[in-house]
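Module 6 notes. Inverse folding takes a fixed backbone as the condition and produces residue identities as the prediction. Think of it as a translation problem where the source language is geometry and the target language is the twenty amino acids. Below is one complete input and output pair. Work through it position by position during the lab.
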C-alpha cells in the first residue's frame, strides 16, 4: 500500500507510468522515503523523492532475467561477488536466497565478457526463451540478451551455469 500522491514525487514518473509491467521490473529506483501508517495501522512508505538509476542494486555484480517459453516464465536472479544469490519467480511470486561459490561467480563473469561485447546473441523465436544478463564489467554496466535455442555455441557454458543457478533457486523456492 502506498498513498498514490507520494509516487508523484519521483522524477519522470509520467514516463514510468507508461512503461509496460514486464519492462518495469527492469527499472531500478533509488528512493528516499519514510515509513508511515494508514488509519488502520498498516505501514507503508511515503516517497519523499526518487530517481531512476542505471545498473543493479549496490553490491550486485550479475543480474539475470530469464523469460519466455510456452509457459511465459519470468524469473530473476541477482548475484553478489561473494556468491550470495537472490532468486525471484514472478509467475509464482516466490523467492529464495541462497549461495553459489564466489569462484564460480568470477568464472561466469569471465566467460560472459565476449558475449557482453556483442549486445545480442541468437535470434528471438516464438516459444523460445531469453536471458537478459547485466554485469559489472570494467567500470560500467553492460548487458547482453541471449536468445535460446538460437544462441551460438560460445554461449553454452554461460547458459549452463546460469541455468544451474536459476534451477537451484527455483527448486528451493518451490519447496517453501
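Target side of the pair, the amino acids:
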Amino acid at each position: 500500500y502506498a498513498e498514490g500522491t507520494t509516487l508523484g514525487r519521483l522524477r519522470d514518473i509520467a514516463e514510468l507510468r507508461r512503461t509496460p509491467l514486464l519492462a518495469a521490473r527492469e527499472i531500478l529506483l533509488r528512493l528516499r522515503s519514510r515509513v508511515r501508517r494508514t488509519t488502520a495501522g498498516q505501514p507503508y512508505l511515503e516517497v519523499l523523492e526518487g530517481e531512476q538509476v542505471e545498473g543493479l542494486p549496490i553490491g550486485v555484480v550479475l543480474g539475470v532475467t530469464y523469460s519466455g517459453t510456452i509457459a511465459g516464465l519470468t524469473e530473476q536472479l541477482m548475484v553478489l561477488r561473494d556468491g550470495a544469490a537472490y532468486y525471484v519467480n514472478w509467475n509464482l511470486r516466490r523467492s529464495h536466497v541462497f549461495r553459489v561459490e564466489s569462484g564460480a561467480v568470477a568464472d561466469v563473469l569471465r566467460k560472459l565478457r565476449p558475449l557482453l561485447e556483442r549486445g545480442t546473441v541468437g535470434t528471438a523465436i516464438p516459444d523460445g526463451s531469453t536471458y537478459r544478463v547485466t554485469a559489472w564489467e570494467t567500470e560500467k554496466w553492460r548487458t547482453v540478451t541471449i536468445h535460446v535455442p538460437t544462441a551460438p555455441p560460445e554461449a553454452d557454458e554461460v547458459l549452463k551455469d546460469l541455468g544451474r543457478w536459476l534451477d537451484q533457486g527455483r527448486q528451493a523456492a518451490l519447496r517453501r
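Reference fact for the lab report: The longest helix spans residues 156-175.
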